[in-house]
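Discussion board: Methods & Data

I've been asked by a reviewer to show the raw model output for two of the constructs in my manuscript, not just the figures. I'm not sure how much to include, so I'm pasting the format here to get opinions. Each protein appears as its amino acid sequence followed by a line of discrete structure tokens. Is this the kind of thing reviewers expect to see in a supplement, or should I convert it first? Here is construct A:
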Amino acid sequence: MRIATYNVEWFTALFDDENRLLADEGWSRRRNVTRAAQVAALGTVFRAMDADAVMVIEAPDQGSHRSTRAALEGFAAHHGLRTTRALRGFASDTQQEIALLYDPAKLSAEHSPSDLGAPRFDTEFALDLDVDALPDPVRWSKPPLELTVTPAPGAPLRMIGVHAKSKAPHGARSPEDATRIAIANRRKQLAQCIWLRHRVTAHLAEGTPLIVLGDFNDGPGLDVYERLFGRSGVEIVLGEGGEAPLYDPHAAEALERRLGTMPSTARFFRKDTNRYLAALLDYIMVSEDLRAREGRWRILHPFDDPACFRDRDLQQALLAASDHFPVVYDVDLS
């Protein structure tokens, strides 16, 4: 089975309020990319992925007139994809949803936020964020999507789609303000990852195979504030201090190196430096029983993946489609 995670920047801006694709020459929310160009590029990328299931991060908005499911299924029909079914979970407070787009001939999926040792992601989690010995309420603006996925054929497994808090200091008016916002955002991001790890631990205790995938807006050695807190959110979710571990080879490589060339899954243009910033933000973490099946991970990176680099149409599509690149995981689940 092939499973992927893909953060599609401003996917919702490619649809009208009737959930119809806007494949026209108007500007998309992508820098210097029209809606028609982004729609076409996404079709090329989704066909190249050829995944049985894609955890779509920043999926189209769900609202009074908008439907995440209808938009994604319409997108799949427009491009003739075999991933014809879409499923979302708890509502997001933003225009960015988390949804699974999948091939119903290869698997079934059900939103199943069971009662475990930590609160469900549509509630609150009490955690001291500012070291004042008083618990602070933590909420997800984009609640993780907890699924039971059953391959055909195969035994059920658990899957959690994640879009963790961004640490970027949006709205800062001074360097001091940027520092304050960045530290507060990192506290929230770490708190979300601690909450997620509690859920992960409870799932692993049940003995069901588990995949945790999505955009963590974090990674080992990613920013200077990690020194202040001593660890990244990714390390927390992977497991520490004898906890049952999850595994992602790109995270493991980043943890081992810390310096030098790192894997990357995202590429952002920075106006202040007039350069692009590469970052490892997207992961597919698996439980030890799945790791033992010796699956294969791949980042569809336009420059670092040789096949993507040689295929100039795919390379340009990856650059036009989003500021993130897909992560793909192939594993035998039969």
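Construct B, same format:
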Amino acid sequence: MADSADPSPEVVAVGAATVDRFYDVTNLPDPDGGAFAREATERFGGVGANVATGLGRLGRDAALIARIGWDDLGDRVLADLEAGPVSTALVRRAAGTTTHCVILRDDAGERMIVTAGDSTVRLRLNDDDRAAIRAADAVFVTAYAPDPVTAEIVDIATEDDGPALAFDLSGPLEELRGRGTEPSTIDHVVETASLFVTAEVAAESYLDCPAEAAVDALRDRGCSRGAVTFGTEGATLFDGEETTEIPAFDVEATDTTGAGDAFTAALTERWLLGDADPEPAGRFAAAAAALNCRAAGARGGLPDRDAVRAFLAGRDA
């Protein structure tokens, strides 16, 4: 169980801790259309909580900064976090509804996700948060975090002896509008981040170019190191002028929810905190993502280091 005492973590993750409600539907409805849900399940997610938990499972001392409501959803989210490997000392409760997601999923695995609740959009940093971030080796923040939070984290990361900044451009700009990080702040993140991660859809939205050109576009904007992910097609890592292609591992997936967060957590652990070379760091991250897909939920299959190493050893044999 995670220690909820005042943390002095290696890495602080900032973002949502949510309840994800999955509905397995006959079809994803068109506008004015409908669908039938054959089964409904509830699991825990949130990009911030997923990445923090991924880092904790990989052996890093991790804390989560998040805001949840004084409601039944918040009770369940907090109980789940307290049973995991992440410090909850910086998770606070306040008025409002705990952030939660409604996820429609068809037989082919295609999804629609709707996020509700105002607890995360009302998150702001306090003095304890700032002290923990400044003392950490690295801070992770998702683009779904409110813009004032991300902007302040960027400022802290640029201070003398500030932490390394890992950032995930978690969704396209239309998803972020009004509840997440603004494009002008993302511009500052690109120039500041020690590790910038984006999936292809988010990259195309922010950079206004095909995802295949995203690496060059990010370099042109001053990004020093990052990854562009392509789902089952793998990822492209870049560090300065060096580029490394990382194939995805083919596994029989139970649920792909959270695969990108598992990849981001493991890449942060290996490449940013662990200072591994890009190719082994990318393979490690791809393996962690593949293992997470073998279990249900956004973090149901998050592996520890031994599990990732065993998976890679089996693939290399």
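Answer (T.O., handling editor elsewhere):
This is acceptable in a supplement if you add a one-line summary per construct. For B, something like: The longest strand covers residues 37-45.
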